[in-house]
Amino acid sequence: MDPVIQFLRSNPWARRGLSFFSVALLVSALGVLGYPVYTNVVHDREQGQLDREIASDDVARAYRARQLKDGDPLTRIKIPRLGVNTVVVEGTSSKALRAGAGHYPNTPLPCEAGNVAIAGHRTTYGKPFADLDRLKEGDVIILETPIGSCTYEMERAPFIVEPTDFSVVTNDPAKSILTLTTCHPRGSAAKRLIVQATLSKGAGAAA
């Protein structure tokens, strides 16, 4: 007889422990598989509400007055190559990022001079930035705000930085660029994947 089977038969506590361990593994596996599904449901609900809000006169007035609060709809980001079409909210708090993508509040508003920075999820909450690594030089990114729109064009391939490297979102009024940040590799926060694009000539938000 297998020694392990013999041990389990002669030790009831070991059988109970093994059963508990098996159940714990099953629950853990269900949690890992179910969490992304749950976050996507939350994201879809958030986006449905944001879709309605971003078209309202109240949001346009708040945008012009620079009075948008954490979690308020700020702009719609479209990335044609990836099929991304997501409403970006103001702020990068955990609550705000349930929308999928959020604007770094210490950076300029979309289409303004400087470094406009947006963070987005790669594996949860709709994962709008899941495939940023597929972007290439020449690809465009469109931002549609409550008061206008603009287009940015990539002049370099995506690159990777340390998660503590905040220089990529540092503002530079002499430039007009868009910076997108997300985790790298997928499912890990070990690094940050960065996409930067330059405001196209003649583009800009409506006054």
How would you describe this protein?
The protein is of the alpha+beta class and 207 residues long. The protein folds into 2 domains: 3-36; 42-199, Sortase (Sortase, Chain: A), CATH 2.40.260.10. Helices cover 29% and strands 28% of the residues. It is built from 3 helices and 9 strands, in the order αααβββββββββ. The protein has helices at residues 3-10, 12-54, 57-64; strands at residues 73-79, 84-90, 101-103, 114-120, 140-145, 148-154, 159-161, 176-184, 191-199. The chain has an 8-stranded mixed barrel. Helix 1 packs across helix 2 (12-54). Mean pLDDT is 86; it is low at 23-33.
Instruction: Tell me the name of the CATH homologous superfamily of the largest domain.
Output: Sortase
Structural class designation: alpha+beta
CATH architecture of the largest domain: Beta Barrel
Strand order of the largest sheet: 1-2-3-4-8-9-6-5
The CATH class of the largest domain? Mainly Beta
Percent helix among the residues? 25-40%
Q: Based on CA inertia axes, which overall geometry fits?
A: globular
Unreliably modeled segments: 23-33
Rg for CA atoms: 22 Å
How much strand?
25-35%
Alpha-carbon distance between the two ends: 83 Å
CATH topology of the largest domain: Sortase, Chain: A
Mean pLDDT, to the nearest integer, reads 86
What is the N-to-C order of secondary-structure elements (H for helix, E for strand)?
A: HHHEEEEEEEEE
Strand element count: 9
* Major sheet summary line: 8 strands, mixed, barrel
